[in-house]
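Query form — protein Mog1p/PsbP-like protein

QUESTION: What is the three-dimensional structure of this chain?
INPUT:
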Amino acid sequence: MPNTPLHLFGGAITAIAPSNLLDASEIRQVPDTQEVLLFPDSSISIIVEILQRVEPNDNQDAIKFHFDSLAHDNDAVTSEVVSVNVIPNDRGDATPSIITLSGVQRVPKFNKTNPDEVRILMALYRVVSNGIDLVVTFNIPVISEDGGAVQGENLNQAQAQFDLFSRSLRIEDFGVFA
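ANSWER: The structure tokens for Mog1p/PsbP-like protein are given below.
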């Protein structure tokens, strides 16, 4: 699937993503502080969220806080952080460097006996001047009772899409955080 520039929050934020992503706001209600995108051929979702900056000043603690908050919101039975990395922004624009996290959560689904295992790929951009944490989350089910699991080469492709999306993300208009 070819990639294309994606305009989020009215073009205030851009990123490179697959051209066939579905905008979840056309299907269901999405808060103004979120953009939710769905892959049409799998159960992978992307959430881009503008949040108030969290207390931990340490970047690793901050992204772990967001991961733990997601686990809480998902009613995860277990959650585990696999890795945290910092990727400096060396493009010369004002977009902050990226803190990335890879983790796994086991999330119960309604009317299912076994929880789904979901690979979580998260990117955090700390916009200190505006008191904002911009969080990108790829939710990738790797074990699922409903047949939406992503494995093997498709999992590698999802990781590559996350890498491209998070590294290409650019804040074009910081006024979106006002």
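ADDITIONAL NOTE: Residues 152-168 form the longest helix (17 residues).
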